[in-house]
Amino acid sequence: MSGVLSDLELLALADAASKRAYAPYSEFHVGCAVLARDGRVVEGVNVENAAYPLGVCAERTAFARAVSEGYRPGDFVIAAITASPCGGCRQWLLEMGVERVVFRNGGRVVTMSPSELLPESFEAADLP
Ligand code: THU
């Protein structure tokens, strides 16, 4: 999908994607839609596993898919998520360099930057 999308249109795509989540254990269906600078939208859903810790979040699925297709950190503008991103996914959102993150939280739609979501963060520059 391409073209200029509003934050709420992107969130609607995340909502639609969430219907495809594989979450038989938590029954918590999450969708993520990432808008790339070239206008392409890459979607992801959470994919759970009977060995619970092996499940992956919707955000990581979306970014892993995008990177697999050739996108790189800095190529993304917005990530829209149907739930508040978990701590680990906040680190991914930071690494991928999205400008803003739009997500549902308790009936509200919230927009924040990755650094607002993860202050005082660990970054590659901190590595030896
Ligand atoms: N989940 C996500 O997909 N993204 C988040 O940022 C929050 C949590 C998923 C993981 C698990 O499959 C389910 O929601 C319940 O935690």
Q: The CATH topology, please?
A: Cytidine Deaminase, domain 2
Overall pLDDT level: 96
Overall helicity: 25-40%
Span of the ends, CA to CA: 40 Å
Strands side by side in the biggest sheet: 2-1-3-4-5
Order of helices and strands: HEEHEHEEH
Strand content: 15-25%
The helix/strand class is alpha+beta
Tally of individual helices: 4
Question: What general form does the structure show?
Answer: globular
The CATH superfamily title: Cytidine Deaminase, domain 2
Q: Compounds present?
A: tetrahydrodeoxyuridine
- What radius of gyration results from the CA coordinates? 14 Å
Second CATH tier, the architecture: 3-Layer(aba) Sandwich
* Poorly predicted spans: none
Return the CATH class: Alpha Beta
Largest sheet: 5 strands, mixed
Tally of separate domains: 1
Number of strands: 5
